[in-house]
Amino acid sequence: MPGCRYCVWVPRTDENGRQLKALLDYLLDGDVEAKDIYDALGISSSTYYRRINEASYPAAEELRRVAGRLTLSYPDLHVRFGLMRLLESWHS
């Protein structure tokens, strides 16, 4: 960000401020381990732990993979993380 002296990048959160793992724990009654997520993403644990601190996490493709593996609604996750509006999800 030009002119930003003390920028802090944080991962995306849902409408309630939860990061992806916290949301998945909520949706699946606390049954989600980090290993479930990085396996769904097809990445190593070290890549996962580096990725979860990046501002672009979770990206649309990551949400698609997690939704598919954990049998969740892909459009719902997109809406929750602000990557798609509710109206758009009705047409997908």
| Helix/sheet category | mainly alpha
User: For the terminal residues, how far apart are their CA atoms?
Assistant: 33 Å
Unreliable runs, pLDDT <50, ≥5 residues?
none
Mean pLDDT value: 87
Beta strands, count: 0
N-to-C order of helices and strands: HHHHHH
Q: Approximately how much beta-strand content do the residues carry? A: under 5%
Please describe the biggest sheet, giving its number of strands, its sense, and whether it closes into a barrel: none
Q: What is the number of helices?
A: 6
**Helix percent band:** 40-55%
The rounded Rg comes to: 14 Å
Choose one word for the global shape: globular
Question: How does the SSE layout of this entry go?
Answer:
Elements: H1 20-27, H2 34-41, H3 45-51, H4 60-69, H5 74-80, H6 86-90
Helix pairs in contact: 4-5
Please, could you describe this protein's structure?
The mean pLDDT is 87. The chain has helices at residues 20-27, 34-41, 45-51, 60-69, 74-80, 86-90. The protein is globular, with a radius of gyration of 14 Å. The protein contains 6 helices and no strands. By secondary structure, it is mostly helical.
Short descriptors:
mainly alpha
Summarize the entry for a quick read.
With 92 residues, this protein is mainly alpha-helical. The chain is 49% helix and 0% strand.
